[in-house]
Amino acid sequence: MSKRDYYEVLGVGRDADEDGLKKAYRKLAMKYHPDRNHGDKDAEPRFKELNEAYDVLKDSEKRAAYDRFGHAAFEQGGPGGGGGFQGGPFGGGFEDIFEEMFGRFGGGGRGGRGGATGRGQDLRTQVEITLEDAFAGSKTNIRIPSSVSCEACKGTGAEDGSSAGVQTCGTCSGSGKVRAQQGFFLIERTCPTCGGSGRTIKNPCKICHGAGRVQRERTLNVTIPPGVEDGTRIRLTGEGEAGLRGAPAGDLYVDIAVKPHPIFQRDGSNIFIRVPLRMTQAALGGHVEVPSIDGGRARVTIPAGSQTGDQFRLRGKGFSVLRSAARGDMYVQVSVETPQNLTARQRELLEEFETEAVTGGKVSGTDVYSLNAEHIGSIEDVMLDKSSGRVAYAVLSFGGFLGLGSKHYPLPWEMLRYDTQLGGYVVKLDKVRLENAPVAEEGWSDRRRLIDEYWATPI
């Protein structure tokens, strides 16, 4: 009875990939599984047919053979059988077909030395450094547990330490590989006798048991060049695992991890630093000193009117460049801080500043309002403090407010508050205090002492 095409069994095309084969097989296997089809005599044979097809097509080598020779690739002894193709449509026999298809598999055709060289494995470790070390470069010691060449036998694996005791493996004839025929396929494996080295030792070393290497912990000095970045990998040739019986050692790869810095941020060869500014510094301008990555100090000119987020560039003050004498730039970003916990004097000054900012410096003629937002008059003039030159009193003109008639009253400046919505000043005082206040008449400056005493006296 002829077998159905394996692709037809799985319901896929010949160009189906591994994922497509797996999905098709799972779907049909669920459908025809005997446990789910009690009483259906056709389910079990169909299920076996699916398994047979998938077993061949999921294996790339078997699939290649099937695509080329069809079901004939698995006849004449079948999988696991001892027979081969002798003559017939394949001419030179099974091994000739294998050499034609897989001649380079494992390192060449028959007679070639395809065994493993025994080279030591590569190792990998990580070293954490500071940003300053990454800038200037550094040297550090690392401890690596690894296989090293056996001193007793000088890495040969022989007890006398000479190569005379090392012989060609009789099982693989020095190739390091053995082949076993299974049906159409010739399976190549690492030689179990010599472990792939192609050699055996008559009198193995008692220390390393013929391996030519032993396990030790080594201390290595690693030089980290200036300019390395987080994730840079340094290769130390020949510092990996020792090779088997004198074979070359592997390499050691050191991955660099750079710790985050509390002040600096790095972007390639450039360095960024954020500097706080007092409000007055930002408004008036000036100079500030900032630390640099090389351990020094840099002077930065801050122009008047600087804002949060403004950035100033210092050429050549940035990070070192790997394998170069050049340096990047340093960028100073400013952040204007709002003052907190003001003293009475500081608050007074800021209130004056706010008044000047809102009114543009012009006070006379500005409207005055009561606490309930009723318009009551305007500012006629101001009285200055002789010692400081600051505004001490505002001379208010009230047009009949509180039944007082049109009079002029010197009022302490701190009893006025500017209201941006009203566009004028609000008086912070009560009726009694205002009714008894000294009136500013002609020559009112002569009454300054009386005015000061009145407002200095508590209610």
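Next protein, fold it too.
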Amino acid sequence: MKLISGLFFIFLLTSFGLKGQNYPIYNGYFLNPFSYNPAAAATERIQANAAYRKQWIEIPGSPTILNLSVSTLLNERRAGIGFRASSFNRGFLSSSEVSLAYAYGVPLDKTSRLYFGLSGGFLSNSLNTKDIASTDPALANVASSFTPSASFGMYYKNTNGFNLGLVLPKLISNSSLDANFTFSYFDNVILTASFSRWDPNPKVIKKGQEKLFVKKKKKTNMPLEAFAIYRYSSIGGLFEATAKYNFNANIWLSGTYRQYAGIIPGIGVHTKDLSFGYFYETGVGGDLPLKTHEIMLSMQFGKESKFRDKKPAPPLSKIKANPVRVAAKKPTQKIDTSANHQARFKKEPPKIGVEPAKTNPTNPVVQKPAVTTPPANQPAPTNTTANTPSVSAEVHAEERKQLDQHLDDHTDGKHDDAHEHPVNQRHDFVKKGNHHEELELATYVIAGAFQSRANAEHYVAKLKALGYEADFGHLSARNLWYVFVAEEKEIPVARQERDELQKNKIFKDVWLLTVQE
């Protein structure tokens, strides 16, 4: 029997050519794309995966595969990093590989991203020749080799659930294995496609909850997912397709058809931080009636990292204010970057949120005073600015346009704390934290929420440049920076402020936030 198995594996080595690296195959490829594509390293949380595969259990010395990987997205960046280690034992030939991966994502539009990945490491091949009586020079070349390895991948992701992948798993030629062949980067190519709108842990903020909002997909979760992978080699190709059905957030079943292997069923369980999958190759529908077992374990750690869709706002020291256009000469408008940020709004904050008043050249931007009715026995005050040049309505329209453009350029900011309820009816209650710039106990009229302090500070500067009073502070419960345009001790007063501010187009989406003990 040992002689038969030895001859069988010598046949495998020669028929598969020793050209390329005889890459291992995983039934659970759809559970961990990073196992073959370095561009998939940017996982939202720290993700650790382990896979074990025992192939053709009826044959002694049959292939055994072990794969370990760790990957994560770097928070508020576009890059991800990963580590992979694998062992592939097939008869008398053993291969081990260790590599590091780096992935970088490019936003194509608001719904799609394209990731590029590169991995590099070392590959070790060894051959146990003690039980083989052969003088084949091909086996002598494999007896001991230690070479660098590298791979390249691309991964397209879209919020509609459609994903594509391309991998060149071998960028460096092995002088021992490839000595008799012409090497090409395209000797091995992996192509993948998938469609999935399933989220086992959808996160929706309900009123009063203290959780960070994660956008839901545009449509309701679809329990059926589809995956396909094609492994091209210069000596042949291998196609595989999988359908996965999620009964609920914890249990799923899968069915795979692989060329030459036939039907492969799978089952798995899933929790928020732990996933387990088992696959069994029955040999039904395949060329050989050989059985194979495979298990996969996945664990996730830490908080979700955020992909930075837009570039961060420039430092305030580099922000140049635009001049205000007036009928006379155009004085330069200065942004008040030294605003009383730490003082917040002390005692009785002024009424804000109304249209900026018309100004004269010596005072480009002033706050419009509240309208009052003089007593009957007192004459109305005289308008002392009636003959002064004024800022045109077009100027304010242009300023609003610039402010809207700022929000569009930092969509990761204003919508960082979106909500399922209508914005103008929103009122959240959150406990105060211990950040050194934490919001004080009060009820705030919120104009925007940002993950970046620089973006919040830049937004406040923009509001002040338009003549509105604003400030910002941190909220530890959500790890966000909130820009507010009013601060009140009493909730009814804050509601009045909000209602008045919502009459202004700029503040039509403001909402209330109460910080409490």
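About the second fold: The first strand starts at residue 46 and ends at 54.
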